[in-house]
Amino acid sequence: MAKTLSEKVWDAHVVAQGEGDTPDLLYVDLHLIHEVTSPQAFDGLRAAGRKVRRPDLTVATEDHNVPTLNIDKPIADPISRAQVEALRTNCDEFGVPRYSLGHAEQGIVHVVGPQTGLTQPGMTIVCGDSHTSTHGAFGALAFGIGTSEVEHVLATQTLPLKKFKTMAVTVNNQLPAGVTAKDLILTIIAKIGTGGGQGYVLEYRGEAVRNLSMEGRMTMCNMSIEGGARAGMIAPDETTFAYIQGKDRAPKGKDWDEAVAYWRTLPTDADAKFDHEVILDASTLSPFVTWGTNPGQGVPLSAVVPDPADFSDPVERTAAERALVYMDLTPGTKLKDIFVDTVFLGSCTNGRIEDLRAAASIIEGNKLANNLKMIVVPGSARVRLQAESEGLDKVFVAAGAEWRNAGCSMCLGMNPDKLSSGERAASTSNRNFEGRQGPGGRTHLVSPQVAAATALLGHLAEPKDLGM
Amino acid sequence: MEAFKTHTGIGAPLRRSNVDTDQIIPAEYLKRITRHGYEDGLFKAWRDDESFVMNHPIYKNATVLVAGAEFGTGSSREHAVWALMDYGFKVVISPRFADIFRGNSGKGGLLTAQVSDEVTEQLWAYLEQSPGAEITVDLPTQTITAGAISASFEIDPYVKWRLVEGLDDIGITMQQLEQITSFEHSRAAWRPKTLS
Ligand code: SF4
What we know:
- The structure holds 2 protein chains of 2 kinds.
- By secondary structure, chain A is an alpha/beta fold.
- Helices cover 32% and strands 16% of the residues of chain A.
- Chain A has helices at 5-11, 39-48, 78-94, 109-116, 147-156, 181-192, 207-210, 214-222, 238-244, 253-263, 314-327, 347-350, 353-363, 381-389, 392-399, 448-457; strands at 14-16, 24-27, 30-34, 58-61, 98-99, 124-127, 141-144, 158-161, 165-172, 200-205, 231-233, 276-281, 288-290, 298-300, 342-345, 373-376, 402-403, 424-427, 442-445.
- In chain A, the strands form 5 sheets. A 5-stranded parallel β-sheet of chain A has the order 5-4-3-6-7, with helices on both faces. Chain A has a 5-stranded parallel β-sheet with strand order 17-16-15-18-19, covered by helices on one side. A 4-stranded parallel β-sheet of chain A has the order 11-10-9-12.
- Chain B starts with 5 loop residues before the first strand and ends in a 10-residue tail after the last helix.
- Chain B has a 7-stranded mixed β-sheet.
- Chain B is α/β, with parallel strands linked by helices.
- Chain B is built from 8 helices and 7 strands; from the N terminus they run E-H-H-E-H-E-H-E-H-E-E-E-H-H-H.
- In chain B, helix 3 crosses helix 4.
- The structure holds iron/sulfur cluster.
- Iron/sulfur cluster binds next to helix 4 and helix 12 of chain A.
């Protein structure tokens, strides 16, 4: 029978087929853990006298809580420190390898998997973090789980799950110059809504997707969750293989050939059926930003803040009214007339080397706008080293930006990097919820290119506005 | 896990859609390493607002939350479920739940009852008219009764079975260890490992 990519990966991991209402028992190839969603799971294991079944398929990193300054000193916040220390003790007790602060591979969990070569096509990958969907860029079935499920995977290396529905998101033609993967995914979310992908695995395909780099693909798959989907996937191709080849944990020699031969069988069969399909024309897209407090509340950067009265759906109208109050915005204001206090470049959506390069190329030789603060946070220690070897840190610092150590940083208000109440940010992260970047903080989600142009001009802007 | 059959308790009307997990419990509470004691973080930002419905003393002992669509979107934090349960909620009623939240709820023992938009509206109207009124949720028959309202709700049949029986997932899977081991024998040797 013809199958989609996600169905092939699913079927290859069924340990026990469920009957009737019983879910399938699915094998997990890679379990990524971090300090926030794992302590209660390890406690559960201890209480039941259970072991970690496959420490060799599990790896931990420290990201959500870690400071991005003074990382050689003990973590100042005692609660954050306790959580990070609990992770270290738990990993050591149960034999799970960990990339702790100071380790070259430490960083945001969804940057670590791909950079080490652990993320490969055709795998099942889980993590107690919703943005696990990022790894789907490689043609892996990757999704976020809760702490009870973390415990379940630690104990059994499996998860009981019902098959997801499939949705094709086909993006025809090419993206215009200056329009990025971030703009594309923000456009898709605005189109399908924050609940549009619910219950589905999205498969992104079409010419515009094929043309994306691996890092662009990761940006897209990362935000599948903002469209309500459990996972996002892109069929592996030569771009994927080239990215993986030579990485530490990539198959080598004969294994490589065997792996690639298998990976080539994964793309969706020509006559396979999706439960649903959405089609977009990439050539009509432009830089996209959010104006509201959920990632679906976005418009092209050239547009104006919408009027809630124009929403026909009463639920959306109320949501828009609330969002505008929180965001302190008036309908009809040009997005490009919105001034920001802070620019955050980083996160598992846009904290990779290409993102830093793209922003640096715009910022190079220029100065940040007056009174504007920009923090640049590489997604991992390795990304940071790479950027420094290319001199990108100097570009940012010369412009007046802060160059930080790796972590989730200002993506969420859980570590010292926070917005103050009333502060407005252009952020390359993935969530603009009320208080997400700090209580009372206001977030506009943007691409790294828009973040960089905004940092120079002080208001939401694209490179074109700088004459680039 | 405690078996869930029928529950009757005070219903709290939360007239909002897209209640994301950051609203249910903010990130700062995620720093804790314990599994209980999250009730003080529930709807934290909103509780500072005096007019917020849950601040009314009548809802102090509420156990059934009636919320708008897309409840529990956002991050996968299971703390959202714990915070609701620690506060005393046994049931959340909504027209649509985010997938991960619904999954987490089933594991924690919080019942997510999915009803139509109309039923949600009826329940809100009823609860707003008679603050402190009770709602009865019967899991085996999948029915909700409140005043003159009687409606059925949807729930995944497997989750229902587990809740009704009070079974925990790891225990169920542990009975399939042989199959897991034999699956592991058939995995390709080149699959990546984190330890070498
Ligand atoms: S960078 Fe943000 S979205 Fe990504 S894992 Fe960290 S907190 Fe979550």
